[in-house]
Amino acid sequence: MAYVKQIIGIFLLVIVICGGPLMLTTVKEEVVFAPEEVVTRAIYLVQQIAGGSLGTYYLGDYERSIAEDIVPFAISTFELLFSSVVIAVLAGLLFGMFLQRFWIVRKFQRLLDLVSTIPDFILIFLSILAAVGFYKVTSIRIITLSPTSDAANKWFPIVLLSIGPTIFLLKVISLKYVQIGGEDYIKTALAKGMGIWHVLTHHVYKNIKPFLLADLKKTIAITVANLFVVEYLLNVVGLTRFIFSKSSMYQFNAAVMGLMGIILLSILVYLLIRAILYLFERILVYK
Amino acid sequence: MQKRFNWPLWTGCVLVTLLLLLGITGPYLAPYDLDFQEKLSSTVVNGKTVITYPPLPPSAEHLLGTDKWGYDLLTLLLHGAPYTVFVTLAIAFIRVFIGTIMGLYIGIQEKTQTWWLSVENAWSYMPIFIPVYFLLAGVTINSELPTSSLVALFIGVVAILGTPSVTASIRQKTEQIKETQYVLAATSLGAGREQIIFRHILPQLKEQIVIILVTEIIAIMTLMGLLGMFDLFVGGTYMTTDPVIYKSITNEWAGLLGSYRSFVYGNAIWIFLSPLVAFVVAVGSFTLLAKGLRDQFEQSYNRTPFI
């Protein structure tokens, strides 16, 4: 029951947020606040959902059914989101914790620190520039901007999307690693002659885990923020297409469905990552 | 142990000072008027007539070149500088001021404020640019409001929507300090709530607040850049409908970057690179400052891991 309540709460929040452009408008030289418009639209939306359809939206000049498009869009967004977060968690744990003790990894982190001075969305831009330059020099194509392109080019948006969360998570984990590494119980464990792998999995990992889980939601939030940019700039056809359309005006129905879909997907990704971490613990830590 | 010279702090300080100076004097330093437009012109070179037309690449007359419509990029950037610098600063100060006060008063409460915790929780998972975009999209594009009120509206919306994160970190710190012995001693000596907040807790938070201020500035600049990607510019977006072109009214840097983003694919790459470099330098100098400050404050707590 509590989950149903939460879902309804999220739905209401999404309606309020998506109603923003309808609520706040300008007429002549005044800002007009008109929440009633959102209420009527929301009621209409709920009626449509109750009637078994999700309504229609305009993609360019064509009117299309949301229900027909939402599944393939959601699948491509999910692939992007899930793979990027998995890459971020893997890279974070690997370089932030297990390999942190090698100097070359620490040097690599210093480099990444330097890179993280630049905001994520600019890094995405620079990567596009680099990919175009790379194509000009070597004529190897690693980037396609056509939305109907073959699936072989999926990895490029995934890599771009994983830059932001990886930098964030790596920073969090290595900070905690340095803190926990200086604790007395680590010293004791080492003094007892326990192997480094044992200390890492049983003492360090277990103490990093709560922080990792706490920051996992934040990681996903960062990924979602970057998702908008990646899908928009690289013409990936995904759920954000419902919200920011390049060729048509803002559409309330589609925006609500898109945002709701993204939120539900990020919850799904969160649960899946938790499951993966649980499996990792069962298989590698406790054997 | 000899203290190492804190390079990030000093470079950051110098760059931020330069940026502030640029923000104040920018419009006066601009080589051309804001509405100066380079037109089609022809010159005779070696007996042949050569037609030059914008976009003009960087040259002695136009240090950063001109954009597709013949506007001098350096002039645009210098006129936009005050908006970039001072809008960001204003938002950051408002956020930190309100956030600190709220955080202190919520943190000092005996009982944990569950309503606030749920607000904090829900808000931290929402990429902030989504609500900001939706709230401002209806107002900013082709608005009849004067630029000043659009800027004020932007400052207000972004400041208020960003306050919960500042409140969260101040609240957590306050809750930690609240449990210390000297606060207990002060309470038993009869200190009131305000006394404890302003005499005993706030002084402990000074360094923290400075760091939060600088990190908020970085976050706000990034947010402005992101909004620029979706054609929502500080101080208003001017949109032409055929062809659809979005232009920043204030020429604020993130806005210029957003409106020139399509030139990333063309040959006139300088149109995109000039605002990009300006924006990255602005964000980078604050990032350096934040890193320097953090290093400075954390030096005394530094521990080396055993493994």
Brief write-up:
The complex is a heterodimer of chains A (287) and B (307). With 287 residues, chain A is mainly alpha-helical. Chain A is 74% helix and 6% strand.
How would you characterize the overall build of this protein?
The complex is a heterodimer of chains A (287) and B (307). By secondary structure, chain A is mainly α. Chain A folds into two domains: 1-52, no CATH class; 70-285, MetI-like (MetI-like fold), CATH 1.10.3720.10. In chain A, 74% of the residues lie in helices and 6% in strands. Chain A has helices spanning 2-18, 20-23, 35-50, 66-98, 103-115, 120-138, 155-181, 184-191, 196-233, 240-243, 252-285; strands at residues 24-27, 30-33, 56-59, 62-65. In chain A, strand 3 (56-59) and strand 4 form a beta hairpin. The longest helix of chain A has 38 residues, at 196-233. The radius of gyration of chain A is 23 Å and the shape is globular. With 307 residues, chain B is mostly helical. Chain B has a single domain, classed as MetI-like (MetI-like fold, Orthogonal Bundle), CATH 1.10.3720. Chain B contains nine helices and four strands. Chain B has helices at residues 7-29, 73-108, 114-124, 129-140, 147-178, 181-188, 193-229, 253-259, 270-298; strands spanning 41-45, 48-52, 237-241, 244-248. In chain B, the strands form two sheets. Chain B has a two-stranded antiparallel sheet. In chain B, strands 3-4 form a two-stranded antiparallel sheet. In chain B, strand 3 and strand 4 (244-248) form a beta hairpin. The longest helix of chain B has 37 residues, at 193-229. The model of chain B has no long low-confidence stretch (mean pLDDT 82). Chains A and B meet through helix 1, helix 2, strand 1, helix 6 and helix 7 of A and helix 4, helix 7 and helix 9 of B. Chain B: It is found in: Cell membrane; Membrane. Chain B: The chain crosses the membrane at residues 7-30, 83-108, 115-136, 148-170, 209-230, 268-290. Chain B: It comes from Brevibacillus panacihumi.
